[in-house]
Amino acid sequence: MTQTYNLAVVAGDGIGPEVTEQALRVLDQVAAQHDLAFARTEYDLGARRWHATGETLPQSVLDEIRGQDAILLGAVGDPSVPSGVLERGLLLKLRFELDHYVNLRPSKLYPGVPTPLAQSVVDKGDIDFVVVREGTEGPYVGNGGAIRVGTPQEVATEVSLNTAFGVERVVRDAFARAQARPRRKLTLVHKNNVLVHAGHLWSRTVDAVAAEFPEVAVDYLHVDAATIFLATDPARFDVIVTDNLFGDILTDLAAAITGGIGLAASGNVNPDRTAPSMFEPVHGSAPDIAGQSKADPTAAILSSALLLDHLGHPEAAAQISTAVEADIAARAGAASAPRSTQEVGEAIGTLVAGGVS
Amino acid sequence: MTQTYNLAVVAGDGIGPEVTEQALRVLDQVAAQHDLAFARTEYDLGARRWHATGETLPQSVLDEIRGQDAILLGAVGDPSVPSGVLERGLLLKLRFELDHYVNLRPSKLYPGVPTPLAQSVVDKGDIDFVVVREGTEGPYVGNGGAIRVGTPQEVATEVSLNTAFGVERVVRDAFARAQARPRRKLTLVHKNNVLVHAGHLWSRTVDAVAAEFPEVAVDYLHVDAATIFLATDPARFDVIVTDNLFGDILTDLAAAITGGIGLAASGNVNPDRTAPSMFEPVHGSAPDIAGQSKADPTAAILSSALLLDHLGHPEAAAQISTAVEADIAARAGAASAPRSTQEVGEAIGTLVAGGVS
Ligand SMILES: CC(C)[C@H](C(=O)O)[C@@H](O)C(=O)O
Ligand SMILES: CC(C)[C@H](C(=O)O)[C@@H](O)C(=O)O
């Protein structure tokens, strides 16, 4: 009997629709092989809608999305819309309203993938880590303001809000992930020598939860030092747990060193399943190459693998990541011309159809 | 006639004293050749004093330092002191009280210096940029707090404070530096799609000041994207202007890709000269190697070059940086054993004494 999931699709702006199309193609192919089906509802959200109606995420749409089983998102943001409107009003609104407190961002350097790092760095060991980025607190809460805007007396604030409740749940999730990985190592990244209030809350929480996971080795890095290690010895990382803003920064750098944001997938996960989780590539809408079929859909495709895993289908998920790995290996071998968005999707689709697993 | 400057020396913790000793040796050598002298006052500040007296920076010491012409600082921080006590109570206190609003951090990849970047990235062009990090505002103001500490109801905040006054003066300084450099390019780094209040203040200010510098080309990057470019195409940068926290993060990464924090110098500059400026290596106190004569004093030595430049002696400053460059080139050639802190200082001192300029 086929198990059918209701899938909200928010293709969004720029290259969002192109890469989402390929992700859906591969998702449907692998689903069919596992007696799964996705009943899609497409939501027209993003720059077009904002220009047409002034809306970013109407309450009625949010309510509808809340009833779905999962969300696949392409990309959000367009230069024609003032910076922050769609990010805060749509993307972050979804993450916050749906309580996506675990923003999961795996980084793995696949064999043959070009990296900006020197061979001597790559040779230090396998680069294969996951960043557990807090998704509902920190400097992202939108708790700031400004007075006397546009005058020489302007003052603008941004408030980072951090709660024991919010920090503990994401730290516990990160420990559980570390426990389930072979190396069992967790690194807290913060800046507790400057942001002492938030930082000490994070440090104390990690110390407390560590007692429940005696097999997990724990260390701490300031965020500035963490960027050094990402550039000089990324193999040292296994699971990183960090706040919303530091996680944003570290995961772009992590993507860069593991082949670029064309390959970086992410899940905005609500581990309590009180609302649907959302899966999206780490990359943005890349308006400069939109509509030209130049975007690499691999990150979107890998995001659909994270989606399958979250829904409880790790084998189906592995089928996608294995196909992606095979495709990447094939690319690395051939000094071929760049492929179109569709060609990459088709190639991975063919590998999935071939029953690679 | 010899011009004498009053120099406050805060050697600090860990490797601070070792590297400062070498910086002072080289500074004195080059000073003598330029009819300059430094009358030093050493201030016993840091972990030892805190343990002995509970003081980080007594008002009377601050008042005395305020009367000096410049400050040379080694490093601050020790694991025996709770994280944040010395950083907030001494280092940041000096930066804030002495209005060091320009935190100047040049990055240059010298020929022959090992970098973690692939040759293909290095080949893209000369890596030679400067980060102008705001030093007296942003998330570093220490404007945060916590309630119900240690309970499940704990809430901790960190407030980023940004003023038109504070942003404009550092942005104008950065434009002036860009104007004086051959490439005349300025990149604002922020996160104005999420931190919209602070971010838009920064963006509007850059737009406004740009009108005064029509020859400077301006662009903008989100902080996450900036880390990608630092890893994949650092030659794209000339002058980066950014806030206190983003500057902290970017400059460690910048140091990593240009040979490591053993080489990264910085100036905490008060361009209005209402108080002495302070020069320090970007690296920390590295307690793990303290007292072993393993620390590379190059960053401290280069910081003394920035000090000379700030005091109006660019030729003396260039003499130091040229000597450092020659020393680095010599290191790169010889596959020699690692040198002690003192040996590096002596080698650079010899090059300076040889009248390299
Ligand atoms: C688009 C932006 C709001 C977003 C973020 O900052 O979280 C993006 O950079 C990401 O990492 O998903
Ligand atoms: C030690 C610490 C407070 C300091 C900072 O965050 O500014 C250091 O990292 C630096 O970059 O000078």
Number of strands of chain A: 12
CATH architecture of the largest domain in chain A: 3-Layer(aba) Sandwich
Low-confidence segments of chain A, given as residue ranges, are none
**What distance lies between the first and last C-alpha atoms of chain A, to the nearest angstrom?**
22 Å
Q: Work out the helicity level of chain A.
A: 40-55%
Q: Could you tell me the radius of gyration of chain A in angstroms?
A: 20 Å
Mean pLDDT of chain A: 96
Q: Please name the two chains that share the biggest interface, counting residues whose Cβ lies under 8 Å from a Cβ on the partner chain.
A: A-B, 72 and 71 residues
Order of helices and strands of chain A: EHEHHEHEHEEEHEHEHEHEEHHH
How many domains in all of chain A? 2
Biggest sheet strand order of chain A reads: 2-1-3-12-11-4-5-10-8-9
Total number of helices of chain A? 12
Keywords (chains A, B): Amino-acid biosynthesis, Branched-chain amino acid biosynthesis, Cytoplasm, Leucine biosynthesis, Magnesium, Manganese, Metal-binding, NAD, Oxidoreductase
EC number (chains A, B): 1.1.1.85
Subcellular location (chains A, B): Cytoplasm
Pathway (chains A, B): Amino-acid biosynthesis; L-leucine biosynthesis; L-leucine from 3-methyl-2-oxobutanoate: step 3/4
